[in-house]
Sequence to fold (202 residues):
Amino acid sequence: MDHSKILGVVLAGGKSQRFGEDKSQVKLADKLLIDYILSEINDEFKELLIISNNLIKFQKSDKISLIEDFKKNLGPLGGVFTAMKWIKDNNKEYQWVSTFPTDTPFFKTQILKDFFNKVKPEESKLFFIKSNNTRHNIFGLWSLDLIDKLEEDLEKGVRKVEVWADSVGVKIINMRFDKNNPFFNINTREDLEKAKVNLLND
Fold:
């Protein structure tokens, strides 16, 4: 598929309630958590959006824009819609939105390349990664054709990514990792401590 038609989007609008503060701004080995994912995906897109309702810090790049959710408290689906709306409002030519979380410091560029290589756009309007029997609903590729359906369902109160994805039909891209889990995500302080250990052993 044409990668120039894909907008990279980091969903940083979560409240991080289990962690107790904005996870994206937590440091792991003197590097902001959000910068781990940015450094892996920055070169893969013409432009990147970070969607956050806070004035967060992140590695600066001319291709990265920080915007707020168009409406707060709609969860990740609201963030996806915000990105799609930004494309429409700014007359951008992107046809797909590729989404990422802020809390997976071990994700690598090659995984994204492999994911895109396995995607056949004619098969679905929505693709998620699944690894070792776990589906990663925030690592998604969303067609802009879904914008009207997404807006309609958000207005109806739909909030769960998994439920909505299943309702519209999602194609799962399977991957397997026998060693370290590149999708390890940091939800709690304990997870952060585990990440520090994993980083030393990486």
Notes: Residues 75-89 form the longest helix (15 residues).
